[in-house]
Amino acid sequence: MTTAFVATAFATAFTIIDPVGMIPLTVSVTAEATPARRAAIADQAILVAAVVILVMGVVGKTILDSLGITLPAFTIAGGALLFLIAVDMLFGRKPGTKQTPEEERAGAESSNPAVFPLAVPMIAGPGTIATVLVLVTLAAGDREKLAVVFAAYASAMLVTWICMRLSTQMLRVIGSTGIHVVTRLFGILLSALAVQFVLNGLAETPLLRH
Q1: Spatial separation of the C-alpha atoms in residues 200 and 56, rounded to whole Å
Q2: Where are the domains of the chain?
Q3: Segment 102-131, tens digit of pLDDT
Q4: How many C-beta atoms surround the C-beta of residue 44 within 10 A?
Q5: What is the rounded CA–CA span in Å between residue 166 and residue 182?
Q6: Residue 6 has pLDDT above 80, yes or no
């Protein structure tokens, strides 16, 4: 196992989940909730998202194999998807892979925002699932690498939980401008990781290796 894999796993987990970016959304979705209810919503959102990510990490490889999708193909597709998300982050647009206008309206009407839209699709959205599958596939059954992927997403989820639980206080300290700056920095890092995924996929494509 190389240091590069460890760095990639942690960088990808934190940039795609974007813990700081969850602060304003948590504040807006739980604006009318009591402090106790807001804490409960954050706890449930993290738990649901963690279950979704874990399940996809465990059975995702099996699904790819059953569909005949190769590692290079999925790596390239995942890189392309992440690049689109990174562009949205850089230009301050809401990522289309996270929430559509229809989903946003449904989420506003939902009595339990923990599951929707906080857990899915904001935390465990298509982008997050794609990166988990890419990293698990790259681990190729290596237990140490799989442990690194688990640790990376567990750490990102822990930081996200802290940000959500302290969202009101952190928004006052960081401010909306600070959140925008951090989101754009994450966007730059994510775009570089996306390009690297595509390059790795192309390098492993049999037709392009000769």
Answers
A1: 22
A2: 3-203
A3: 555 554 445 578 988 799 878 997 778 888
A4: 16
A5: 17
A6: yes
Residue 53 C-beta-side C-alpha neighbours within 13 Å: 30
Distance, in Å, from the CA atom of 28 to the CA atom of 104, rounded to the nearest integer, reads: 12
Q: Which fold has domain 3-203?
A: Growth Hormone; Chain: A; (1.20.1250)
pLDDT in tens, 13-58: 999 898 988 988 888 788 778 889 999 999 999 999 999 999 989 9
Give Cα 204 distance to the centre of its chain. Answer: 25
Query: Mean pLDDT across the chain, nearest whole number?
Result: 83
Count of C-beta atoms within a 10 Å radius of residue 3: 7
Q: Which DSSP string corresponds to the chain?
A: --HHHHHHHHHHHHHHH-TTTHHHHHHHHTTTS-HHHHHHHHHHHHHHHHHHHHHHHHHHHHHHHHHT--HHHHHHHHHHHHHHHHHHHHTTPPPTTT--HHHHHHHHH-S-TIIIIIIIIIISSHHHHHHHHHHHHHHTT-HHHHHHHHHHHHHHHHHHHHHHHTHHHHHHHHHHHHHHHHHHHHHHHHHHHHHHHHHHHHHH-GGG--
Take residue 86 and report the two structure tokens written for it: 């990174």
Q: Please, which pLDDT band fits residue 99 given cuts at 50, 70 and 90?
A: low
Six-digit token string for 12: 């990808």
Rounded percentage of the chain residues whose pLDDT exceeds 90: 31
